[in-house]
């Protein structure tokens, strides 16, 4: 039995045998061994070896964790970053997609009207404009009212074209009248003031604002009184479609010259 | 009260002893015979905790003695056991 006990003692881990092996042999020499002692030693061998395995495993885990920490953290960070980028891309893609907006159709643009201002008023002008919409006279007539009324309009070349001005909380852009012709809905030409006493040609300058709804508001005029009143009352009846600057509604300022020619006007008024 | 560690500590309370002496002492005062595996398992744990210390010797039979911490622990454990014994005895008497 003592031989079996010594054999069982060899099953202890080397570390244990180095520490307690000699005195354990001495103990076995001293005791009267029994099978219960053999089972007792075997049970303790199992316990010690189990504890050693646990300690070894813990040490191995600690070492592997410390060595694998950097790559593990890097891997987690990379995956997290990729997922975050995908989420951000998806989110911005979804949120920035423009929603379908039902835009009301603009009013129909009338056909290009005949130039029915009096061409004689601006003999050298390249652009002469008409009143819109204008009911064409009966067939055979030659638009006698305006063609020979001695009144014409001419859009000025603006030195500050495209400039943006701010006035309080509102802002407006300067556009030449020619560029606004595709937006015109209604135009009224001035009538020669019947009570005017001036002779020759008379030019009146009108600066006007096209508001957000397309209506016209006179900002300032220059010229003799009866002619400015005639030009003002006509221009403020103009109507445009609402204008947009860079896809946003905006107000626009333009300037126009209205020229009155007394000679042609008088000839039109006399039957 | 089958904890071999407290038996070993109690055995070493009156002086240093080697393994076989501890085993015989315990058998005498507690009536419990510890197997060699159980005895050295307890000795290894107590020495690891610092509650007993090996005494230098040239003999194969390694004697051990109680350390100061082991002595303190033994006092605490015996006080606890004494409290358990007194409470149990009183309750048995009152029952």
Question: Could you walk me through the main structural features you see in this protein, from its secondary elements to its overall organization?
Answer:
The complex is a heterodimer of chains A (271) and B (95). Chain A is of the alpha+beta class and 271 residues long. In chain A, 41% of the residues lie in helices and 19% in strands. Chain A has helices spanning 2-9, 14-30, 35-96, 144-147, 225-235, 262-269, and strands at residues 151-155, 164-167, 170-174, 184-186, 201-210, 216-222, 239-240, 244-245, 248-249, 251-261. In chain A, the strands form 3 sheets. In chain A, strands 1, 2, 3, 5, 6 and 10 form a 6-stranded mixed beta sheet that branches. Chain A has a two-stranded antiparallel ribbon with strand order 4-7. The radius of gyration of chain A is 51 Å and the shape is rod-shaped. Residues 130-148 of chain A have low confidence and may be disordered. Chain B has 95 residues and is mainly alpha-helical. Chain B has a single domain (4-94), classed as Winged helix-like DNA-binding domain superfamily/Winged helix DNA-binding domain (Arc Repressor Mutant, subunit A, Orthogonal Bundle). Chain B is 64% helix and 6% strand. Chain B contains 4 helices and 2 strands. In chain B, strands 1-2 form a two-stranded antiparallel sheet. The longest helix of chain B has 27 residues, at 68-94. Chain B is elongated and about 55 Å long. The interface between A and B is medium-sized, with 24 and 17 residues.
